[in-house]
Amino acid sequence: MKPPSQKRTTNAPDQTPYISTFDFRLSTFQISLIMLTLKIINGTLIDGSGNEPRRSDVGVTGDSITAIGDLSEAEASRTIDAGGSVVCPGFIDVHTHSDTYLLIEPTAPSKLHQGITTEVCGNCGASAAPVSSFEHLPSDWADKDYPTTWSTMAEYRSLIEKQGIGVNVAMLVGHNTLRRSIVGYDNRPATGDELAEMIRMTEESFEAGAHGITTGLVYAPGMFAPREEIVALASIAARYDGLYGSHMRSEGDALLEAIEEAMTIGREAGTRVQISHLKVAGRTNWHKRDEALAMIRSARERGERVASDRYPYTAGATDLDVVFPEWAAAGGRAAILERLSETASCERLRSELVDSRPREDWGGVLVGSTTHPDNTRFRGQTLIDVANQLELPHPVDAILHLCRTDELKTGAFFAGMSEENMRHILKEPYVMLGSDASLRALTGPLSHDYPHPRAYGSMPRFLRMAIDEALMPLPEAIRKMTSLPAEQFQLKKRGIIQTGYAADIVVFDSESIQDHATYGNPHALSTGITDVILNGVQTLSNGSETDQLPGRVV
After folding, report:
1. Which residue of 67, 165, 184, 538 has the fewest CB atoms within a 10 Å radius of its CB?
2. Would you call 27 exposed, middle or buried from its count of C-beta atoms within 10 A (0-12, 13-18, 19+)?
3. Alpha-carbon distance 434 to 307, whole Å?
4. CATH assignment, 4-89+497-516+524-545
5. What is the distance of C-alpha 447 from the center of its chain?
6. What DSSP assignment string belongs to 317-373?
7. pLDDT 10s per residue in the chain (554 long)?
8. Where are the domains positioned within the chain?
9. Contact status, residue 393 vs residue 381, Cβ threshold 8 Å
């Protein structure tokens, strides 16, 4: 394929389209009568359905795809010469945490340069709304400055629509956000009145356009919720043809039990199930892969609507205090910090953490973002390295030190997944791509933390695996990023290059597309995505941002 340097964009005076839709079966004479907003010529079209690549032009009128075929005779206000590069649907990142960050950096540069045109927000039980107080948001959201406040999903939606966004957004309702607002951090079931209020807020969110409800069952307070509570809320999703997505209670020792719980909730609620970032964590659990996948396949063969997502890395990322046991995580931040400062509780916690895994396993945990100035030097280092530098007797002491001084705002990367398992899972036909990351930027407020490299590199990294390793055919890799997620999340008329569908289009050079973010240098934009069209508006042109904000809540 020709390098992107051979691409050209030309402009012509704006004219009113002659008609709104046509396809490649129209005659050359009919095509010559059409005036397009934009046409992409000389591209290798991979349409998102899994079909084989073909040479074809793509025409856009307004915000829709209106022509596919030989458009050499069609006039257009603008023309992009793809020069043999791949032309495909915009990528759908099904597992993101960009919710509130869209109000800070609406152009979403780390996602834009990956070719992502739609983000599914509200995963792992955490959503921007509905929320009674910003104190109930995750700590990395709560400590940011926002232009205004909001409470309901409708208010949040109105804010991002009024401001403008550089990606489309599909919203999910976070169960942890609901529970914090109504029940708090208590380790107990919700009362009847509390559950009724959570149901009311969930219904209100679906009326505002939510596509599903999610849980984060390894995090407080979601971990305290009985299955019956989750089923009651997931049943609301079923009424609105939404789905239930879950960061399960376990991705390691109790993986099989957690998968069964997620699918049981889906069966009892009568809704689709999305198993978040499917993985097998911990070397002693790697052998469970085949049984786990067999469980999901069997459920699908029975007609259950179960799917999953995955990022193409073998280290996960979350808050460091996720390793705390339930008793230590109860009560919220103030209560946890008090335990860390109280000798008896801290000693109990230390003892349980020491016993939880062999000492050498902590070498697979790297420090991510930190807040205390003295801890910045530890970013990207293992807990064993931190303990040695601080002259502490055990890596667990480094955990306690970081969590105490960063006031529970320490991020971490958790290695412990198998490369072979990761690739095997990615090849499953129902597994789609999700970065599990918030948007980031090279400048401004979202440039100062230390994110997982998946925030900048997930989609290009996966494409390189498909191309270089023959992990799967390129049309199948693109299907996993386009039509498959569009179907699972009910994103109407997106995910396929087809007439009448939304003009969310990506042009990339298959030879040069590359992720550059690493664990040592996470803030690095991907390259090789040359052009991005969002709802008919060009947001990336020859690799440069146009600063347009044509995104929608979908």
Report:
1. 184
2. exposed
3. 12
4. 2.30.40.10
5. 18
6. EEEGGGGS-HHHHTT-HHHHHHHHHSHHHHHHHHHHHHHHS-GGGGGGEEE----SG
7. 433 334 444 433 333 232 333 444 455 555 555 689 999 999 999 999 999 999 999 999 999 999 999 999 999 999 999 999 999 999 999 999 999 999 999 999 999 999 999 999 999 999 999 999 998 899 899 989 998 999 999 999 999 999 999 999 999 999 999 999 999 999 999 999 999 999 999 999 999 999 999 999 999 999 999 999 999 999 999 999 999 999 999 999 999 999 999 999 999 999 999 999 999 999 999 999 999 999 999 999 999 999 999 999 999 999 999 999 999 999 999 999 999 999 999 999 999 999 999 999 999 999 999 999 999 999 999 999 999 999 999 999 999 999 999 999 999 999 999 999 999 999 999 999 999 999 999 999 999 999 999 999 999 999 999 999 999 999 999 999 999 999 999 999 999 999 999 999 999 999 999 999 999 999 999 999 999 999 999 999 999 999 999 999 99
8. 4-89+497-516+524-545, 91-314+416-451, 319-415
9. no
Q: CA-CA distance, 100 to 512, in Å (whole number)?
A: 32
Distances (CA, A) of 87 to 6, 31, 506: 15, 20, 6
The token duo for 530 is 């040359």
Bridge-based pairing state of the strands 529-534 and 315-319: unpaired
Residues 6+ apart with CB under 8 A from 276: 95, 123, 124, 214, 245, 246, 247, 248, 308, 309, 434, 436
Q: pTM for this structure? A: 0.93
Evaluate whether 207 touches 242 at the Cβ level (below 8 Å): no
The 10 Å Cβ neighbour count of residue 393 is 8
CA distance 530 to 547: 15
| C-alpha to C-alpha distance for 128 and 393, rounded to whole angstroms | 40
Residue 269 phi, psi dihedral angles, 5° rounding: -85, -20
Q: Which two tokens stand for residue 379?
A: 């970013």
Please state, in angstroms and as integers, the Cα–Cα distance from residue 44 to each residue in 53, 109, 321, 365, 450, following that order.
6, 25, 47, 42, 37
Give the single-character DSSP code of 190.
P
Helix (H) or strand (E) holding 214: strand 212-216
CA dist 372 and 511 (Å) reads 42
Half-sphere exposure of 399 (CA within 13 A, CB side): 24
Q: Does domain 91-314+416-451 have CATH number 3.20.20.140?
A: yes
DSSP state of 472: S
For residue 246 the two structure tokens come to 């879950």
Q: Tell me, what amino acid is at 41?
A: I
